[in-house]
Model the fold of this input.
Amino acid sequence: MEVLRIILLVAFIIICFALVILVLMQEGKSAGLGAISGAAETYWGKNKGRSMEGTLVKITKYLAAGFIVLAAILNLNVF
Done:
């Protein structure tokens, strides 16, 4: 059981580092003064789910879910 705990802990640490890196790679959500005039509605704004930014958001969501699940499992003290 101790080996499984070590494997889960290593996976947890890797997910933590990956989350930090992905969050730092993402752009800010504030549009600045461009939102006042409507300049935020560009091609990339409408198709954000298909862009690199959209992909980063999706990966971040999955890693955050994995982070929460692993944190709960490691906190159970079953191992």
Observations:
- DSSP finds four helices and no strands in the chain.
- Residues 2-25+41-75 form one domain.
- The CA atoms of residues 44 and 50 lie 9 Å apart.
- The mean pLDDT is 82.
